[in-house]
Amino acid sequence: MRLKNKVAIVTGAASGIGKEIALVYAKEGAKVAIADLNLDQAKEAAEEIKSKGGDAMAVAMNVTNEEEVDNGVDEVAKHFGGVDVMVSNAGIQIISPVDQLAFSDWKKLIAIQLDGAFLTTRAALKHMYASGKGGSIIYMGSVHSKEASKLKAPYVTAKHGLIGLCKVVAKEGAAHNVRANVICPGFVRTPLVDKQIPEQAKELGITEEQVIKNVMLKDTVDGEFTTTDDVAQTALFFASFESNALTGQSLIVSHGWFME
Ligand code: NAD
């Protein structure tokens, strides 16, 4: 087991990519906190892990709320005895051309992706520094941390921003044995993507099938979606890599959609 007795917090883990990371971490022996806006669904995910013999707890957390993040992370540290891994994964998508984008939507998305990443990082670092054991901070970026697409201005902006935060945390955290890295997935079939297929079709005046084939998967090497398990295995790799040799990096998992 690659994460035996490690404590991991995964935000946005009631659904999609975050949930799969929580399941994989638990299978590898971690005690996992499912931190999500949706407490009922977070509890279901925690129960699923427990029914498979893992250890998990659900925490109600809006990642944009300073008090909820600080209290939630402290609660997990108290319950499980520390924090070793923080996966800052919660996110949303908003589809709109820049000239029609509401300022409130811009601020909403930036807050969830960037304020959320800052607040969860700060709260986790407090415990990682104090324990003397260090830890691993993992940000859920995207191919959109490296590349732009039409209709996604706040998302592309925020995902690029995560790389900056990651590099600073990698430099500051090194003295405390804390590593920080970003995962950059291509398109993964989760509720976040299923919602935007018809929205993009409408904005671009094409069919949903054309959105999938000609927009989302057009530049992949094989026309395939990335899976939640592909991303979870990458998150496992970062969480279980225990030296500062691998820090401040961003790894693209996208069927070759974007290469660097
Ligand atoms: P999802 O919609 O399946 O899950 C997102 C989860 O985040 C939900 O459980 C939701 O309740 C939670 N959440 C939303 N706002 C929150 C908040 N303010 N506080 C706490 N929790 C909140 O989406 P997903 O596809 O699994 O996305 C997870 C992450 O992966 C996001 O950061 C997303 O940008 C990123 N990502 C997704 C894809 C993809 O194709 N699906 C690709 C690259 C990156």
Automatic annotation (TrEMBL):
One of its GO terms (molecular function) is 3-hydroxybutyrate dehydrogenase activity. It comes from the Bacteria. InterPro entries: 3-OHbutyrate_DH, NAD(P)-bd_dom_sf, Sc_DH/Rdtase_CS, SDR, SDR_fam. The keyword Methyltransferase does not apply. Keywords: Oxidoreductase. Pfam families: adh_short. Belongs to the short-chain dehydrogenases/reductases (SDR) family. This is D-beta-hydroxybutyrate dehydrogenase. The gene is bdhA.
